[in-house]
């Protein structure tokens, strides 16, 4: 009897068939923004995510901050509104956000509690009445001519098909675009990509412990001199989680190809080993860390760069450096150009002119060669230098919101109307 029921359930799953106006693939910052933006524009919308929760790097790599919501001026100017601001408001209701925080680098960031982010995103999606499926992996794309007609997905029970009029790739790795044989770019001209880094959540730290970059660097140099290893970066982000005594730091680093299982496996093992050495080094050489212990890593190494799409317009380094404005802008970027090249060193920062912001034109989120596919988040069309700015999650909320609205307003259409998309974004309180 049990075997019969199991078989029957399996057969039912095989025939499952879903249909929506818009399907968003990827549930990070950009994906959540795209799904809510599309739904608020009147489209029946489904988001699918392969992890057991939303949030992307913020939750799956326990990153301690959203970057890109604000300019680096004094006072900072908010340049990401709309869905991104809905998330900030939800975090504020939970007592997890009140104002931007000025980091040691002088950047205006939003400190995060990754567990609070998971719940806040659930609440935002539910309030917007957006459907989403976790634990769901895209494995195949069906196309007719230059349009995606459906995607094949799977969970642990079976494969199933989802049809939509328009799709948004918010995967962080341009996975949907690649599966659809769309144009993608990997890294820079030589194929080099930014390094990956593991985040550590640490408990047992004294409330008055000095967690400044200078203090951390001194302790790590002492540990290296004493022969402790492997240790890579000597300095990195280290902050206290809002409302808690725990701290999160981003230090263990490695060169990693974030779309290759062999490379990921090797790198994950290497940075986990580093994590425990860092904790031992802190206990020994950092006052106030004598009772420190490792609460959590990752759970995945933070991936900064893999594939991105080739769009109708490629955002350039000059666009960013010159804080260029566009008549067809659909989002703003304000984060400095931040490029991580060496596992042993801090990032290279280049601040924007006047610490202001640049516009992101609609062509940067429209994938070339595929009529009904939009891109969101760090995979939007950019050159390697501009990528160092647009890849952060605050900007991802902005480009995701734009991609979702654009998707909703192009259902059953060829081409798009920029004015209509801009008007709808403004109606949804986006900042463009």
Overall description:
The chain is an alpha+beta fold and 432 residues long. It is built from twelve helices and 20 strands. The chain has helices at 2-14, 29-40, 57-60, 82-93, 114-127, 175-179, 213-225, 261-285, 317-321, 384-390, 393-408, 418-427; strands at 17-25, 45-48, 65-66, 101-102, 108-111, 131-133, 137-144, 147-154, 159-169, 184-186, 196-203, 238-240, 247-254, 293-297, 307-309, 329-333, 337-339, 348-350, 358-361, 373-375. The strands form six sheets. Strands 1, 2, 6, 7, 8, 9 and 20 form a seven-stranded mixed sheet that branches. Helix 2 (29-40) links the parallel strand 1 (17-25) and strand 2. The longest helix has 25 residues, at 261-285. The protein starts with a helix and ends in a 5-residue tail after the last helix. The relative contact order is 0.19. Mean pLDDT is 95; it is low at 1-9.
Strand content: 15-25%
* Rg calc: 22 Å
Query: What is the terminal separation in angstroms?
Result: 60 Å
Q: How many strands, which pairing sense, and closed or not: the largest β-sheet?
A: 7 strands, mixed
Number of helices: 12
How much helical structure, as a percent, in the residues? 25-40%
Extended strand count: 20
Shape: globular
Structural class: alpha+beta
């Amino acid at each position: 009897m049990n075997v019969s029921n199991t078989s029957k359930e399996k057969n039912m799953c095989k025939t499952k068939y879903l249909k929506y106006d818009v399907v968003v693939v990827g549930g990070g910052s950009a994906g959540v923004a795209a799904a809510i933006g599309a739904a608020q524009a009147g489209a029946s919308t489904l988001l699918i995510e392969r992890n057991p929760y939303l949030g992307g790097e913020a939750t799956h790599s326990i990153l301690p901050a959203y970057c890109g919501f604000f300019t680096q001026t004094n006072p900072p100017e908010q340049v990401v509104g709309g869905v991104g601001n809905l998330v900030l408001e939800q975090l504020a209701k939970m007592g997890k956000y009140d104002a931007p925080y000025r980091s040691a680098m002088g950047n205006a960031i939003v400190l995060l509690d990754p567990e609070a982010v998971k719940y806040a995103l659930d609440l935002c999606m539910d309030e917007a009445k957006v459907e989403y499926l976790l634990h769901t992996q895209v494995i195949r794309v069906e196309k007719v001519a230059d349009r995606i007609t459906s995607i094949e997905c799977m969970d642990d029970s079976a494969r199933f098909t989802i049809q939509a009029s328009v799709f948004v790739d918010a995967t962080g790795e341009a996975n949907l675009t690649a599966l659809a044989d769309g144009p993608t770019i990997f890294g820079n001209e030589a194929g080099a990509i930014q390094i990956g880094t593991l985040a550590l959540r640490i408990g047992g730290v004294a409330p008055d412990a000095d967690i400044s970059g200078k203090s951390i660097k001194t302790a790590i140099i002492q540990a290296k001199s004493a022969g402790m290893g492997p240790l890579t970066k000597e300095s990195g982000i280290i902050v206290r989680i809002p409302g808690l005594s725990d701290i999160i730091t981003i230090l263990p680093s490695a060169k990693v190809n974030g779309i290759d299982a062999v490379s990921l496996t090797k790198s994950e093992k290497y940075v986990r080993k580093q994590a425990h050495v860092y904790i031992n080094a802190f206990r020994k050489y950092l006052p106030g860390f004598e009772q420190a212990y490792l609460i959590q890593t990752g759970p995945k190494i933070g991936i900064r760069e893999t594939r991105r799409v080739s769009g109708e317009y490629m955002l350039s380094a000059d666009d960013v450096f010159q804080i260029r404005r566009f008549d067809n802008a659909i989002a703003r970027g304000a984060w400095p150009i931040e490029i991580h090249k060496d596992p042993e060193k801090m990032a290279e920062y280049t601040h924007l002119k006047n610490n202001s912001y640049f516009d992101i034109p609609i062509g940067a989120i429209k994938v070339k060669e595929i009529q009904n596919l939009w891109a969101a988040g760090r995979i939007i069309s950019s050159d390697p230098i501009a990528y160092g700015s647009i890849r952060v999650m605050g900007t991802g909320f902005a480009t995701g919101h734009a991609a979702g609205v654009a998707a909703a307003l192009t259902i059953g259409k060829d081409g798009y109307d920029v004015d209509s998309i801009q008007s709808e974004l403004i109606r949804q309180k986006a900042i463009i």
